[in-house]
Structure formats: structure tokens, C-alpha cells
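Async update (no meeting this week)

Hi team, since we skipped the sync, here's where things stand on the single-chain job. The sequence we agreed to prioritize is pasted below, unchanged from the tracker. I ran it this morning and attached the output directly underneath so nobody has to dig for it. Comments welcome in thread, and please keep replies under the output.
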Amino acid sequence: MKTVVAQASSLPLRFFASLLVFAAAAGLAAEKPAPEKGTVENYVQQSKTGSGDERVKTGQFFFPRLQFKCREEVPDKWDIHPVGDQKLRESIKRLTNINILAEPVVVNLDKLDEMCEFPYVFMTSEGDFNLPDKHVENLREYLTRGGFLYADDCVLYQTGDNFYRAFVREMKRVFPDNPMRPIPNDHEIFKIFFKLNRIPFLQGKNDPPMGLFDKKTGRLLAMVTSGDLHCGWVGFGNLNKDECRRSIEMGVNIVVYCLTH
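Output:
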């Protein structure tokens, strides 16, 4: 009888010991430092993953973010606010029949073949940047093969357009004989899915959207905006709600244009 009592009384001890081990492990996990800004780990950790959509695994469309370096130290690097990418992906899935996947993807210009697996790449940051010569060559090859690059200025301290101006300048290095030009408001990209009569503007400088056009076909190969559409995708409370909605619509238009041209 005493043996039975001893065995029974040992159960709570093992239970509480397990709780202590679990609590200690949780404490260690909580103390793990957050990934550093500007790293793939930071972008992936901040991305909200999907719920395991069981769609047919053909015709999949990913929404990759381009990793690159700015010349100066800026608060918002290439990996800023991945939730904006996720919210646009969710809108594209809800509003269209595009088989877009929720998983975050990061590409860089060191790995051309890997980048060329994706027809669309998104790029954003606050700061000025210079592409290494090899990256200039690889970006030229990516766009020549049919890839599409959309770039949006994250807006330095809510006023500047450093990234926008740097992008236009660097694209002159990519295609010296084919500089970027303003995209007119009657261009197909503004009406291919949603009907818009201008580029949305959230904050910063209201520069015209600039496009790199294929000299033979007129197809847009790359596009840059200065008004922080990406923050509109995030939906920050200090921004105009109507413009946030339009920024989502423009984001959908850009992806639909990419996939149909």
C-alpha cells in the first residue's frame, strides 16, 4: 500500500518538473535576439505565412523581394514591412484567380538563374544605392529574358525620394541607350484590372511613375514610384484610406500586367 502511495505521489512531481523544463525552454526562446535588420531572416520572421492553401501546384506565382544594399545607413532597409507584401498577396488571391502563394521569397542579383525563376520581383528601401557592375549585368539579363521589376520608394523620413532617384539613375547603367520615361496616365497598366486615372500617392514626393520600355515591343520591363505605395499596402493609420485602397488596386494591376505581357 505504501508503495502504491509513493508511486501516485511521484506523478505530480514529474508533472511540475516537466513544467519547469518547459518554462526554462520558453524562457530561452524568449531571450533569443531578434534578427538584424537587412537580413533574410528578419524579412522571413516578420512575414505572415499563409494557412497552407491546397491549390493545384501548377501555375504558381510567387512575390519575391529583392535583397540589396544602400550606400548610406537608413532606418528602413530592403526588408522593411514584409506585412505589406503579404497583404497585397492576400488581396491578389481574393480579387483574382492568380494562384499566388503566401510564402515569403527573397532573391538577389548574385544568383541570376535563381532570380530568373520568378517573372516578377519587388524592390523597396529608403536610401540611395549603387549596383555593383556584376549586378548591373545580371539585372540587364533578367529584364531581357522577360522579367519584371517593380520598385517603390519607402520615403526617407517621410519627405525624400532618394531611392526613387537612385533607381532611375542605376537603370541608365543597366540600359544606357534606353533611359526610363514617365508612364502616362492613360497607359494600360492603370486600367488592366482596376480602373485608375493616376498613380496613387501616400507620402513623400509626388514624382511621376517612371518606366523602362522595351524599344521593340513597348512592353514595360521595370517601373518605379516615389509615393510609397508599399506603406499603403501595409495600411498605416496615418495614411489616407482611399489612397491605401488605390495602392492595393495599383499593386494588383502591376502584377496582372506583368503576367499578361
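Quick observations from my side:
The first strand starts at residue 64 and ends at 66.
The CA atoms of residues 116 and 149 lie 11 Å apart.
Reply here if anything looks off.
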